[in-house]
């Protein structure tokens, strides 16, 4: 069974930084994996924030976070990091990590992140940004 462990959420003031981590385990991931971060604020729809595909290095960022967030992958640790800088109050949400590992990997392709392609989801971590 694939497990996801998220960490790194918290509270910061606007302009501050946080780093989220998503560690996956429970599979050999021989065909690679794609990991995505989604977020959902109260009363708003879930938004795909960023994703990375370990098999080809493809990366996606939502326009709302480009230039401020950086996603990276430590393949040896099967851990993906989301470095969030210059945080804004509108970034406040519960952030969810999800993994796509059933081939073909179609969750992080082109200029979009396809939530329905993700097989397993974390429980979420709260990010609070005060103005």
Gyration radius (Cα, Å) is 14 Å
Q: How much strand?
A: over 45%
Q: Mind describing the biggest β-sheet?
A: 7 strands, mixed
CA-based shape: globular
User: Helix tally?
Assistant: 0
Question: Brief description of this entry?
Answer:
The mean pLDDT is 95.
Relevant terms:
131 residues; mainly beta; 50% strand; globular
Explain what you see.
By secondary structure, the chain is an all-beta fold. Helix content is 0%, strand content 50%. The chain is built from no helices and 13 strands. It has strands at residues 3-7, 10-13, 18-25, 34-40, 47-53, 59-61, 69-74, 79-84, 93-100, 108-109, 112-113, 120-121, 125-130. Strands 2, 4, 5, 6, 9, 12 and 13 form a seven-stranded mixed sheet that branches. Strand 4 and strand 5 (47-53) form a beta hairpin. It starts with a strand and ends with a strand.
Present the secondary structure layout.
Elements: E1 3-7, E2 10-13, E3 18-25, E4 34-40, E5 47-53, E6 59-61, E7 69-74, E8 79-84, E9 93-100, E10 108-109, E11 112-113, E12 120-121, E13 125-130
Parallel strand pairs: 2-13
Antiparallel strand pairs: 1-3, 3-8, 4-5, 4-9, 5-6, 7-8, 9-12, 9-13, 10-11
């Amino acid at each position: 069974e694939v497990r996801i462990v998220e960490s790194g959420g918290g509270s910061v003031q606007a302009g501050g930084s946080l780093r989220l981590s998503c560690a996956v385990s429970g599979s050999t991931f021989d065909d690679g994996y794609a990991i995505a971060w989604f977020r959902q604020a109260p009363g708003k729809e879930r938004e795909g924030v960023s994703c990375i595909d370990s098999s080809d290095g493809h990366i996606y960022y939502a326009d709302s976070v480009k230039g401020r967030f950086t996603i990276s992958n430590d393949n040896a640790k099967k851990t993906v990091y989301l470095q969030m800088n210059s945080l804004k109050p509108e970034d406040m949400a519960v952030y969810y990590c999800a993994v796509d590992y059933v081939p073909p990997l179609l969750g992080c392709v082109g200029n979009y992140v396809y939530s329905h392609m993700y097989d397993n989801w974390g429980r979420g971590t709260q990010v609070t940004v005060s103005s």
